[in-house]
Amino acid sequence: MNERLAVFLDCQIAEHHQSEQTGDNFCALDYQVLGKRTRGDTVTVYMWVLYEEFSFDPALDGGVKKESGAHTATVITAKKDRDHYTLIEYWMPRDGSYYADDIREKFPLRMWANAMDSEKFYKIQAPLLAEMAYEYYKENPPVTDSGDSTDIADVEGEDEPASTVTKRKMTIEDVLTLSEKGDALTWEDFAPFTWEYTGLWNPGNVNCFPISDSFRLYIGYSPEHTLTYAYLYTTLYDQRIEIRTGDVAAFIDEHTAPPAHVHSFTDGPYYTTHIAVATESYGTVIDPPAKHLRYHEVYRDCTDCGYTEYLGWVYCGTGKGSSDKNCTGGCANTTRFDHIATRLATEEQESEIRHLINDMAEAGFEDLWTCLHECPNIYTRLLAYDDFTLRYVLKCFIAGGQTGLRGEILAQLLCDLAPKHVLALDADNGQMYFSAWKNSAKRIRERHGDAWMEENHPAGALLLRMLNMR
């Protein structure tokens, strides 16, 4: 799901549930997307929404008290005008005996079971919101009547202030030491180290520990803090290893030196300009944003081959209606926008997508149908990442060799993310399907031109940009 649509959904859910009683409560929400349907300029998102409000109560363990909440199957329909979304309908089923009939009438058949399984999704979503509230009050303790900040140690009845844990950046030597614990490795073993990124996904959390320009470590853990994986990832080779079971020392030796071909990029990134309705601070959004903002999608080209790298998007400093020429100096200047940080954020998103696809492909299913049937939440999550997933799928196919179940999963994602351009083709594997899909995109471009492609076949236009054919 693209960033603008995600912000729009956040705003609509918050606006729908917040009331005069919200006051100073901490508001948290999460939505699990069951599916998305696009018809012309209308977008419909089917989801489970959990909205809860919390207050600080020092008498409780953790200091967090849930004041109110709502867990509902929800359908939001919006009209899309370029990158601006306007609400058409915010729908929820009626309670009681009407509920099942309303779900069957509104949701597609394949989503009925999930749309009626409140307990299943609440178990996933509730711990996430509780963790958000805990972290919020941990970082922003309420002020007491005397104007002093509440001391967590005093709340817990301790005589001495809580000790401060000194964290440090993880080193490659730390990874080797951690790997020696094998299956005995736990989430608590990573407490001494600083992490740069956390992502919430189904069914748990992901933390990233930066090590160097060549390596970073990703750990996954459940809401109960049970460690699910610990992958050492090399950015130079786009490879990973499970440090609990793999030969970490050999992996480090093999992937420390740069590969034979390292992309050499141009000094200055280039960008395309778009108009969006957005805000600069997603975390404080209460009302739907009304200010039109300009933003740039940023790219850079390798000078030695046809590779085009997408660095993400950044806000433009000039107002609506201004010329591109007025913002070239400021927005392309790295002192104003940290392109490296934007690129790292994109890489982290891509890493999660890669892990999800690998989890499906390596689970031992015999065929694609069984895989999709047994992993609906993971696949739905991949579809929810929308443009990020599409870019990763195209990147995999461009690299080649996508056969077997993994190739079939990638091909199915391509079909679902670009449904208007599915080929009626019985290909032997995913890579063969992509080859035909790529040739079709080239022919369409030759017939209609670049502008038509961007408007009517954005997935094909993206592929051609990545192949540096424009």
Detail the topology: elements first, then pairings.
Layout: H1 3-17, E1 26-39, E2 42-56, E3 64-81, E4 84-91, H2 99-106, H3 112-115, H4 118-139, H5 152-155, H6 172-179, E5 197-201, E6 204-210, E7 215-221, E8 227-234, E9 239-242, H7 248-255, E10 270-277, E11 292-301, E12 308-315, H8 328-331, H9 339-361, H10 368-374, H11 376-384, H12 387-399, H13 404-417, H14 430-448, H15 450-456, H16 458-466
Antiparallel strand pairs: 1-2, 2-3, 3-4, 5-6, 6-7, 7-8, 8-9, 10-11, 11-12
Helix pairs in contact: 9-13, 12-13, 12-16, 13-14, 14-15, 14-16, 15-16
Describe the structure.
Helix 9 (339-361) crosses helix 13, helix 12 crosses helix 16 and helix 15 (450-456) packs across helix 16. By secondary structure, this protein is α+β, with helices and mostly antiparallel strands. It has 3 domains: 3-141, no CATH class; 172-255, no CATH class; 277-466, no CATH class. The protein has helices at residues 3-17, 99-106, 112-115, 118-139, 152-155, 172-179, 248-255, 328-331, 339-361, 368-374, 376-384, 387-399, 404-417, 430-448, 450-456, 458-466; strands spanning 26-39, 42-56, 64-81, 84-91, 197-201, 204-210, 215-221, 227-234, 239-242, 270-277, 292-301, 308-315. Helix content is 37%, strand content 24%. Mean pLDDT is 75; it is low at 144-165, 197-204, 277-292, 319-326 and 332-342. The radius of gyration is 24 Å and the shape is globular. The protein contains 16 helices and 12 strands. The strands form 3 sheets. A 5-stranded antiparallel β-sheet has the order 5-6-7-8-9, with helices on both faces. It has a 4-stranded antiparallel β-sheet with strand order 1-2-3-4, with helices on both faces. It has a 3-stranded antiparallel β-sheet with strand order 10-11-12.
